[in-house]
Amino acid sequence: MNIFYRRILPLAAIGMAVIAAPISAETLEELDALAEITQDEEAGISLAQEQAGRGEFLEAIGTLERVLANHPKSQPARLLHAVYLCQIDDQIGGAAELAKLKKKHFLEETWQRATTICTLSGEEN
Questions:
Q1: Mind listing the pLDDT tens digit for each residue in 15-57?
Q2: How does pLDDT run across 50-88, given as a tens digit for each residue?
Q3: Element (H, E) at 64
Q4: 59, 51 in Cβ contact below 8 A?
Q5: Whole-angstrom Cα distance, residue 110 to residue 70?
């Protein structure tokens, strides 16, 4: 398994994040800068984790949606997107995202935490 998945996903699944100053776009230049961050998969995921760590789940979901637009096969971004959807009580959306993933691509503990948060997900993947 890729070291990227081992480092990023366990942090995402348990909701840990680096706490930093709030990041919000107030100008077109700031919005462009945020969009630029999501061009890089790992940087976009890290930004989303920072946002969620501050309780900014809607912003984190938006960031992950931009990451997924640029990297549609990003399993770490999709898993984190599912978890954050479930954390804002969109269990159906989170379950739909988890249904696109395969359990075998993740550490058992990471998958278990995600499916615990997303109660409608089931365990068949």
A1: 443 333 344 556 888 778 888 999 999 999 999 999 999 999 9
A2: 999 999 999 999 999 999 999 999 999 999 999 999 999
A3: helix 57-70
A4: yes
A5: 24
